[in-house]
Amino acid sequence: MTYSINIDRVEKDLYQLAKFGFNEKDKGIYRQGFTDPDWESRLWLMEYFESYGLKVQMDGAGNVCARLEPEGGESQPTIIIASHLDSVPAGGIFDGTLGVVAGLECIRIIQENNIPFRYPIEIIATSEEEGRFGGMLGAQALTGSLTLGWLENAKDPTGEKITDAMAKYGLDYHQALHAVRAPETIKAFLELHIEQGPVLEASKKTIGVVEGISGVFKWLIKFIGKADHAGTAPMNLRSDAFMGLAEFAHEIGRIIEENGTDKTRLTIGRVELKPGYAHTVPGQAEFTLVGRDMSEEVMKDVSDSCRKALSAIARRHRLMFEYEQMSWLEPKACSQYVMDVIEKNTQELGYSYQLMPSGAGHDAQFFSDITPTGMIFIPSVGGVSHAPDEWSHWSDVEKGCNVLLNSLLTIQHDNAEGKA
């Protein structure tokens, strides 16, 4: 037997949460972690959870946690459904928030239909997932990936420290280290999310069964040459830093073809030329390079190839080459058991689907280290996310929520039989 959610309630809840941080001018959501709109949304959500009789608390990292207990199940490990409440600047209404609202809707259906369940269900709205301070604070705290050193040094792009931002809302950052959950207290982790890309829409599939989350490395690269007068410096005697950058950008396709896979991504996302004057040959080019793949071995091969290409290009253009590795996150695989559960329920509901990786980071990547973890994607119209025109059709939202609900119930049943 399959169950269906009430899409009208989900839609209403998403629009309600969209009011927190909504900007009338550009229609975007401005609800960055540890800002007033973010905090107000968390307080509202706590009251809303309580109205459904859930046990609600906010932990030391600012995660909002709501728990439904079965009879006699207080000591059992919990099944967690989670995603984040914070947004990027000028974000959309679905990113993160959908996964939280969908979790609540699963609980409402269970309550209304008196569906028996053995293991506690916990809905968590994680804090600071979008990386205002360079990490995923809520998920890191819950999974034991947080350190005191990181907390005391993390800053946002304006220089504000995360410790100060938390203190504004009465949070002692030391308490974030007490939010950690022991692996044996968690039975499984589920997250429903918009794809944030064009793959499902292009393939005309409704559900993405996520195989894993791509690993990511981020470099800050500098080509250092010599600034010259644009009119008097002969072309063959220049040390033009931009020409080095342009040649490397042209090499990206070759590097992926020779050392990568169809899941490899290389992106130059930010470029700064110095001195940055129209009549001056650029003496320095500073740029970011972000690489992704589902295999850490491939990531290493691609990064080695990038380094060799950069070095050779620097020699050809009489440049110095420097780079700093800002971060390296290894790929995370989803649980085959949870993937099978999601796929089985998608089939039983009659929805089209495909197996796919996640190119973006999510809370799930941290939980995959400590518990069986799975993710469900639904299509993003035009592949757009992190923007005011982010959109997913309500029919797809409904189907994604239905897959989440029935997968949750399957895990409840399988766990009772000791299969997880």
Entry summary:
The chain is of the alpha+beta class and 420 residues long.
Cα-atom radius of gyration: 23 Å
Category by helix and strand content: alpha+beta
Mean pLDDT: 95
The named CATH superfamily of the largest domain: Zn peptidases
Number of domains: 2
Gross CATH architecture of the largest domain = 3-Layer(aba) Sandwich
Q: Oligomeric state of the chains?
A: single chain
CATH class of the largest domain: Alpha Beta
Largest beta-sheet details: 9 strands, mixed
What gap, in angstroms, lies between the N and C termini?
Answer: 21 Å
Using the coordinates shown, work out and report the CATH topology of the largest domain.
Aminopeptidase
Q: What is the total tally of β strands?
A: 16
Count of separate DSSP helical elements = 12
* Beta-strand share of residues: 15-25%
Low-pLDDT windows of residues: none
Report the helical percentage: 25-40%
Shape descriptor reads globular
Could you give the order of the helices and strands? HHEEEHEHHHEHEEEHEEEEHEEHEHEH
Feature tags:
2 domains, 420 residues, alpha+beta, Alpha-Beta Plaits, five-stranded antiparallel beta sheet, nine-stranded mixed beta sheet, Aminopeptidase
Q: How would you characterize this protein structure?
A:
- The chain has about 425 residues and is an alpha+beta fold.
- It has two domains: about 5-215 and about 330-415, Zn peptidases (Aminopeptidase, 3-Layer(aba) Sandwich); about 215-330, 2-Layer Sandwich (Alpha-Beta Plaits).
- The protein is built from twelve helices and 16 strands.
- It has helices at about 5-20, 35-50, 95-110, 135-145, 150-155, 160-165, 200-205, 240-260, 295-315, 335-350, 365, 395-415; strands spanning about 55-60, 65-70, 80-85, 120-125, 185-195, 205-215, 215-225, 230, 265, 270-275, 280, 285-295, 320-330, 330-335, 355-360, 375-380.
- The strands form three sheets. Strands 1, 2, 3, 4, 5, 6, 14, 15 and 16 form a nine-stranded mixed sheet that branches. Strands 7, 9, 10, 12 and 13 form a five-stranded antiparallel sheet that branches. Strands 8-11 form a two-stranded antiparallel sheet.
